[in-house]
Amino acid sequence: MAHTIKGKKQLLTRVRRIRGQAEAIERALDEERDCLAILQQIAAVRGAVNGLMTEVLEGHIREHLGDHASSAAQRSEDTEAVVAALRSYLK
User: Fold this and answer.
1) In angstroms, rounded to a whole number, what is the distance separating the alpha carbons of residues 31 and 55?
2) Residue-by-residue DSSP string for 48-90
3) Predicted confidence band at 66 (pLDDT cuts at 50, 70, 90)?
4) What is the CATH classification number for the domain harbouring 68?
5) Residue 70: its pLDDT value, please?
6) Which end of the chain has the least Cβ crowding within 10 Å, N or C?
7) How many domains does the chain have?
8) What is the mean pLDDT of residues 52-76?
9) What b-and-e string marks burial along 52-90, b requiring 16 or more CB atoms within 10 Å of the CB?
10) Is a pLDDT exceeding 80 seen at residue 90?
11) Is 17 helix (H, G, I), strand (E, B) or coil?
12) Burial of 22 (0-12, 13-18, 19+ CB in 10 A)
């Protein structure tokens, strides 16, 4: 997976941020904080995980699936269409 190796530092930074957010949820639950605050933290984690998924999927599509079209122009167009659909779905 060359795309994850190239972006390893950035991906690990995202994962560490997600870990910190999950730990904040755990602390909030332990401290019996307000439900609204906990829900906001959960939503932030979900957004961060979706962002990580989008980045990894986009790299995978561009690097691995883009090679199956007949021409470079068609391959690029097809890849961009799939990436746009995934970005829309994962928002």
Assistant:
1) 34
2) HHHHHHHHHHHHHIIIIIGGGSSSHHHHHHHHHHHHHHHHHHT
3) low
4) 1.20.58.1000
5) 56
6) C
7) 1
8) 74
9) bebbbbbbebbeeebeeeeeeeebeebbeeebeebeeeb
10) no
11) helix
12) middle
Sign of the dihedral defined by the CA atoms of residues 67, 68, 70, 75, in that order = negative
Tell me the mean pLDDT in the region 63-79: 69
Q: Which of 15-24, 27-36, 53-62 has the lowest mean pLDDT?
A: 53-62
Phi, psi (deg, nearest 5) at residue 35: -55, -40
Structure tokens at 55: 């980045």
Which residue type is seen at 32?
E
Q: Which domain holds residue 70?
A: 2-89
